[in-house]
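Supplementary Methods, section 5.1.

A reviewer requested that the exact input to the structure prediction be made available. We therefore reproduce it here, unchanged from the version used in the analyses.
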Amino acid sequence: MFIQVIQGKVADEAGLQRCMERWATELQPGAEGFLGTTAGIADDGTFVALARFESEDAARRNSERPEQGAWWAETERCFDGEVSFMDCPDVTPWLAGGSDDAGFVQIMEGHSSNPARMLQLLTEGADRIHQARPEIIGGMFATYGNDGYVEAIYFTSEAQAREQEKTAIPDDLRALFDEEQRLAGEVTYYDLHRPMFVAASH
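The structure derived from this sequence is encoded token-by-token as follows.
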């Protein structure tokens, strides 16, 4: 799996919503290798989208379609300033992965001294995490460059996530959690209170 992360400050939210809906109905059917998109607008006005493809080649072929270029020329006018694109060639889903049934999605971005160890801790503890935090449906851990990572966690609802945050971490997860926190470094959080999903045609 390959993920392209798209980010930018929103200037026209209604216009962006229309463009996203148009992509889903008009362009998505012709996007070979497209697996799905999770998107939303965070509290600071940043739009974040995680577009999943079967491979980097599939993502590139989609970008090269003339209709994709025309759509993007219209869509980028909905942003204030530059829009960044970040390619993540290594993606690992955990538990149920990215779920379109989520009512709340939290995206974390950062740089780690050891992303591989972060992923190992996450996958080793996934079942126990789900037992302790049943509102977590699943997630995806993606890396780019030498030390960059993007992690997305999908929750049943924000209310349940906030309530469960108050519970104590079980003793058998404490060491794992503490090590992951140390490796995560300085993290930027994007809370998608009203996540938008684009599903792949089957």
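The chain has a mean pLDDT of 93. These observations are discussed further in the main text.
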